Each structure stands twice: as C-alpha cells, then as structure tokens.
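fyi for ur records
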Amino acid sequence: MGKPTGFMEYERRVSRDVSPGQRIKNFNEFHEHLTMEEQQEQGARCMDCGVPFCQSGMTLCGMTSGCPLHNLVPEWNDLVYTGNWEQAYMRLHKTNNFPEFTSRVCPALCEAACTCGLNGDPVSTKENEYAIIENAYEKGYAAAKPPKVRTGKKVAVVGSGPSGLAVADQLNKRGFGESIMSGMTPEERAKHLQLHDMEELSARISRTEEWMACQTMLNNGCVMRHETDKEGVYEDVEVKFYDEATNP
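which gave:
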C-alpha cells in the first residue's frame, strides 16, 4: 500500500498548532492542516509492510494495539496517495460511522502500532483520516444516503452519544426507523454555552450537529427526542429529522 519507498523519500509531517497566544483568543480549532498535495505524500509513506498491525485492534500484554474499529488503514492511505479521495472516504466509512469525530479526538492507536514506526516515524494516519472526511463533506461524498427499502419497524436508541448515534446509523442502513432519546434539548445546550460565553464554540457545535444530522438522521426516518420528566415520558423536539411521507 502507498508507495513502497515512500517512507524513505518523505518525512512525516503533521498539522501545525496555532501559537498559544493566538488560540486563547477564541474557541476555534487551532490546527493548520497540510494541503491536499502534501497529504498525498503522507499517504505515500504507508509501506507495504505485509502485517498491518495498525488495523488489528488487538490486546497484547494487557495493552490495546491498533485500531479498535479495525479501520482499513493501509487501503485508504493508498487511496490518499493516489488521489482517489471518494473511494478513500468509502473505505473509511465502511468501518467508522463518525470519522469527523475520531479524526479529531482519537488517540491514534493505529500510529502507535505502525510498522513504519519501529525504526522511524509512523505514518500520519490520523491526519490522513481528517483530510479524507473534510474533503468528503466539501465534495458531497458524505451526504445522507437513505436506504431504498424500509422494514416498517422502529427501534428506540437511548442516548445520543457516539455509541447511540453509531447504533442508529447502522440500524438506518438496514431500513429501520429510530427514535434517539437524549437527556438535553437543543435549547438547553444553547443556554449552557451562553452561560459560559462560548459563542464561537457554540458555532462549532452547531456545525457538528449538522454533520450528525446529515450522517445519521437526515431523510433517514429518525426522530430526535428528549426526556421531559422523571417518569420516562418523551416528547419530540421542535426540529425532527423524520420523513413522514415515506415512513408514516
């Protein structure tokens, strides 16, 4: 995968951090990422190691080695190198429901397990993942893709965290309709952010919620709900991602 001699020709490069003096002025993301061309060179560093521990997701001597999601890391590193960004997104999304999150907060166990890192610097896999998903949203590859056939059955998913949303995404792909139960309304989230005067962070979270809607719910027959009392009564929030015309 990648370029057989790429790890010898190109040095590892990652995004640069904005200086602390600048980033304390706001709540924006503070990484200056590589260009697409530079990122392709990083994809070229993925060597044809033959034993891709990066995607193994195994427990060795009580420690986790490799990606717990078993992401097809060598495959989409190679597709980044060749500039096939759409196919790279398809291979990434095959095993990862929310690369827009993991490409930002994952501790990158794949890089710790990278064979290239045994005698040098590991492949910048996390940065490649970020480039793939950001490009996918820009080009429209990550648009919602509703299933062609619905089962007519519904499933309640309690919790709107990463696990709950991933479950909803998988169920949607299989034609089910879901109700995602959340303990905090959008209005409560907004008040919480205003309390801490985090307007710019609130804007980032709004964009994240837009991604969540697009990726998991939009036109996929899903209703977002929030808890209204201690007896477990739920009420639909004002904005519903539910297509009643096709799934009454």
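The CA atoms of residues 7 and 158 lie 45 Å apart. thats all i got for now
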